[in-house]
Design a protein that fits this description.
The protein has 15 helices and eleven strands. The protein is of the alpha+beta class. The strands form two sheets. A six-stranded mixed sheet has the order 1-2-6-3-5-4, sandwiched between helices. A five-stranded mixed sheet has the order 7-11-8-10-9, with helices on both faces. β9 and β10 form a beta hairpin. It starts with a strand and ends with a strand.
């Protein structure tokens, strides 16, 4: 069992530390409960742009000093933005933990958005947008999110639009962070071979000076779901397809666990997933096919993605629907369910062996659920899932008329 320490600072920022013996590396990250869904049409892309600009200068470091700060001691510094989170994180030898905490808090809370760097980074993001458009797999997922969530911020591309990216100024970043930052919704996650006292001292040193602040704006609620069928023409050779719908939120424990298991059986990373066995192994129609379940605070998204020859697109869709129907029509046997439980437990246990992934997972879970369940507790929740639970969520989620479809087909021009 992992040794976990949790505590809350006076300003509301929470800290989670997981002790791992026999490692020389510390992974730490600052998790902000701010993401692209906190934008609107007029400032689409600002959360991601803010994440980029955080590295471009602070009150005490230039952009080059930020780059060199951890790289010079063999460490790594990174960040990402998604629908509901901005995360800044670092990996260093344990003797440089203090420095890593200093740097991640510096860029997360003390950026000064220098004008000359703003213009350079604007060009970088526009190039990132062009690169994204050249990758049909990435653009397929983003386009599918738009199909599922429409004009709601959850359906907007995280990178933004060219016109919004071209217009952002320093004041926009300051206003956005002021309106959405909430110290009660910030987590500092640490994994390494340190004492809890070391982590507490360093956490207080760099976080207690951050003024308590509360979110001024509420997130726009999800306002229903209607199945859509969308076809897009793109300069691709394969036909790409997304099939799915809105699904369960991270707080829906009764349905989230069985659906997580169901999606893993359907199209998880195992080569024995039902979709892989059907579309690839049996019929040879795809190179890869995946099923995903992404739960958020008040919604979730279920999706199946694959690419195939254009003439085989309809056949592949039929095969996917057959597999969905199998889960709806026949209850799993105890033997089938037990095998699925053992497979997903093994996958989770192996994922926890990666200490960076463990740190990132703990930060996200604590931010969302206000707890960090042990692997044993997760296993117990998996063991509670019954064949009836799997059948219930399958019949709830896999109704043909409620599934959305996105076809990305080759442009004939």
């Amino acid at each position: 069992m992992r040794d976990v320490t949790l505590f809350t600072l006076a300003n509301g920022i929470r800290v989670v530390y997981q002790h791992i013996a026999h490692t020389k590396i510390v992974h730490c990250g600052v998790f902000l409960d701010i993401g692209s869904r906190d934008e609107d049409f007029s400032n689409q892309g600002i959360a991601h742009f803010w994440e980029h600009m955080a590295f471009k200068g602070t009150l005490k470091r230039t952009s080059l000093e930020i780059i060199d700060s951890l790289e010079s001691v063999g460490g790594e510094l990174n960040a990402y933005t998604d629908k509901e989170k901005i995360v800044f994180y670092a990996s260093v030898r344990d003797s440089y933990f203090d420095l890593a905490a200093d740097v991640v808090t510096d860029i997360a809370f003390h950026s000064n958005f220098p004008a000359e760097e703003l213009e350079k980074e604007r060009g970088v993001i526009l190039e990132e947008m062009a690169m994204y458009l050249d990758d049909p797999d990435d653009s397929l997922q983003d386009e599918f999110e738009t199909v599922i969530y429409g004009s709601h911020p959850m359906g907007m591309n995280i990178l933004g639009r060219k016109d919004t990216v071209a217009a952002f100024k320093k004041k926009d970043f300051i206003d956005f962070s002021t309106r959405h930052l909430d110290t009660g919704k910030i987590v500092f996650s640490v994994v390494g071979n340190l004492s809890p006292q070391q982590v507490e001292v360093v956490s207080k040193k760099y976080f207690e000076g951050i003024k308590s602040q509360h979110r001024k704006l509420q997130r726009k609620k999800i306002n229903g779901y209607t199945a859509q069928h969308v076809e897009l023409k793109r300069p691709v050779k394969q036909a790409k397809c997304g099939i799915g719908r809105q699904s369960y939120s991270i707080y829906d424990r009764d349905s989230r666990y069985p659906f997580f298991m169901l999606v893993n059986m359907l199209g998880g990373p195992g080569m024995n997933s039902r979709l892989n066995l059907s579309l690839r192994e049996k019929h040879g129609l795809v190179y890869s096919v995946d099923a995903h379940f992404a739960p958020y605070s008040d919604t979730g998204m279920f999706a199946v993605f694959f690419g195939t020859e254009p003439r085989q697109l309809n056949r592949c869709i039929q095969l996917v629907q057959q597999e969905l129907n199998r889960f709806c029509e026949k209850k799993l046997t105890d033997k089938q369910l037990n095998a699925a439980k053992e497979q997903i437990k093994g996958q989770l246990a192996m994922a926890e062996e990666n200490n960076l992934s463990l740190m990132l997972m703990a930060g996200r879970i604590l931010l969302d659920l206000k707890e960090v369940p042990s692997l044993e507790e997760v296993f117990n929740r998996i063991d509670e899932v019954s064949p009836d639970d799997i059948l219930r969520v399958a019949q709830d989620m896999f109704i043909p008329g409620e599934l959305s479809y996105l076809h990305m087909i080759p442009d004939s021009k």
